[in-house]
């Protein structure tokens, strides 16, 4: 019985380590899926819904509610502003990006551009990046 106990503990530790390695990947996949499945096109989309989703994720990650704000200058045109506090020893860094995407007509796609599809190790959906995003100063 002692041998089984000695073998079981390392196997449990190994399983926990392997699960911990998958956790960041699973979280990244969940965030990507959530944001892709929010239509943020100019004509029919809702940037505010995406901004609220990002704000929820930031708060869940430990950002103070005082440091995360959804700004809505016009209906469905919201954006999120977040402050990552530092210790004051280094110069600040500003990350700037946008939430909207180019128009994606369903008939131009072989699959729904606002549903993420994972196939053969790739994700297929409407792009969430452009030459204008992100910027870092």
What does this 3D model show about the protein?
With 137 residues, the protein is α+β, with helices and mostly antiparallel strands. It has one domain: Zn peptidases (Aminopeptidase, 3-Layer(aba) Sandwich). It is 36% helix and 13% strand. The chain contains 2 helices and 6 strands; from the N terminus they run ααββββββ. Strands 1-2 form a two-stranded antiparallel ribbon. A two-stranded antiparallel ribbon has the order 3-6. A two-stranded antiparallel sheet has the order 4-5. The longest helix is centred in the N-terminal third of the chain and has 35 residues. The radius of gyration is 20 Å and the shape is globular.
Which key terms come to mind for this protein?
two-stranded antiparallel sheet; 2 helices; disordered C terminus; Aminopeptidase; alpha+beta; 137 residues
| CATH architecture assignment | 3-Layer(aba) Sandwich
User: Given the helix and strand composition, which structural class is it?
Assistant: alpha+beta
How many separate structural domains?
A: 1
Which oligomeric form is depicted? single chain
TL;DR of this structure?
The protein is α+β, with helices and mostly antiparallel strands and 137 residues long. The chain has one domain (2-136): Aminopeptidase (3-Layer(aba) Sandwich). It is 36% helix and 13% strand.
């Amino acid at each position: 019985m002692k041998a089984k106990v000695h073998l079981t503990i390392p196997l449990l530790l190994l399983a926990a380590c392997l699960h911990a390695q998958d956790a960041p990947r699973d979280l990244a996949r969940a965030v990507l899926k959530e944001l892709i499945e929010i239509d943020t096109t100019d004509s029919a989309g809702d940037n505010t819904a995406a901004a609220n989703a990002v704000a929820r994720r930031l708060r869940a990650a430990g950002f103070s509610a005082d440091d995360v704000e959804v700004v809505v200058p016009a209906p469905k045109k919201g954006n999120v502003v977040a402050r990552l506090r530092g210790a004051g020893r280094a110069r600040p860094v500003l990350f700037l990006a946008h939430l909207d995407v180019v128009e994606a007509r369903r008939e131009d796609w072989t699959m729904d551009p606002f549903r993420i599809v994972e196939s053969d190790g790739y994700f297929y959906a409407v792009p969430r990046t452009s030459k204008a995003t992100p910027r870092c100063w």
